[in-house]
Design a protein that fits this description.
The protein has 319 residues and is of the alpha/beta class. Helices cover 43% and strands 20% of the residues. It has twelve helices and ten strands. The strands form two sheets. It has a five-stranded parallel sheet.
């Protein structure tokens, strides 16, 4: 099987690296310093599941050089998905499956606007990983999990094959959900309140859970997303909120999300795909989500500054 990993950051570097470690035919799509580092030094992964190095890997910044592959793992940030969909078209043939691993619930539909929707899966992953430097991935928390499937949940041997490949890789667990949309929304319920509240407070997860005030906000924001999912006919289990909080409690307390880290460091983030998506999708079904709206509005100026659309250096006129 030939597998392309589009985006070689924390997620793509880790899961693609595990595939390459297992001996799969993997090609990475990367750019800038990461492209140079992968070409000259290979891929280095420091992981709580075991460190490893891939000295020589296939990597390019031009998907047209790759040709049609069996699978594409789409591992770019959420706001990069539309551009990635256009760029990956030369790698997507009639039988290619594309698995998006972004946070949020909109990536499959964004991919399907450019590619044939029949080629696009729903997908998600669970991992605390980040780039410690160009070509150097650090996996610091969570047991790496990857899940994917067709949005209508029909059986497909190609999906089974990819899941089996991942389950043979060291440091990865894979499964095919009975309902991939439910699985994606469960991840959405977990990551979005944590990201937003973590970015506003600049506190790690353990503090958010320990302090009564932030814990209550975390629960309320999670409940809002649960109600939104049900309003949009996602068959979320009745105990989804309690299970989400329990899952958060099992994550290392010093953990932070990529969105939180990006906003704190002044970089563009996935705010629109997380808190923004909650508010946007809730508006479509006439549902109020006040905590998530507060988090979005509180963070929007930081996002605009990171994207160069707003400056904090303007002087106010004296009154």
């Amino acid at each position: 099987m030939r597998i392309a990993v589009y985006g070689s950051g924390g997620v793509g570097g880790y899961f693609g690296g595990r595939l390459a470690q297992f001996g799969q035919d993997v090609v990475f799509i990367a750019r800038n310093e990461t492209l140079t580092a992968l070409r000259t030094e290979g891929l280095k992964v420091g992981s709580i599941a075991g460190d490893f190095v891939i000295d020589k890997i296939q990597v390019t910044n031009n998907p047209a050089e790759v040709g049609v592959v069996d699978y594409v793992l789409c591992c770019v940030k959420s706001w990069q998905v539309p551009a990635a969909a256009r760029a990956m078209k030369p790698m997507v043939g009639p039988d290619t499956l594309v698995a998006p691993l972004q946070n949020g619930v909109e990536a499959p539909y964004q991919l399907g606007e450019v590619l044939d929707p029949a080629n696009v899966l729903g997908g998600l992953c669970a991992i605390v990983a980040f780039m410690a430097g160009p070509g150097h991935v650090k996996h610091s928390g969570a047991n790496p999990l990857i899940r994917f499937g067709h949005l209508d949940n029909h059986a497909d041997p190609r999906v089974n094959t990819l899941s089996e490949i991942f389950n043979h890789c060291s440091g990865v667990k894979s499964s095919i959900p009975d309902d991939v949309l439910v699985a994606m929304w469960q991840k959405f319920m977990l990551i979005t309140p944590w990201s937003g509240l973590g970015a506003v407070s600049r506190a790690p997860l353990g503090v958010l859970l320990e302090q009564p005030e932030t814990r209550e906000l975390l629960i309320q924001a999670t409940e809002e997303i649960y109600q939104l999912g049900r309003a949009r006919e996602i068959n979320l289990p009745d105990d989804s909120v309690a299970r989400t909080i329990k899952t958060l409690e099992d994550i290392p307390p010093n953990s932070t999300t990529s969105m939180q880290r990006d906003l704190v460091r002044g970089r563009p983030s996935e705010l629109d795909a997380q808190s923004g998506a909650v508010v946007r999708l809730a508006h479509e079904v006439d549902l109020e989500t006040p905590v998530n709206r507060f988090l979005l509005y509180s963070l929007r100026s930081l996002e605009l500054r990171a994207r160069g659309a707003l400056s904090f250096n303007r002087r106010s006129s004296p009154r």
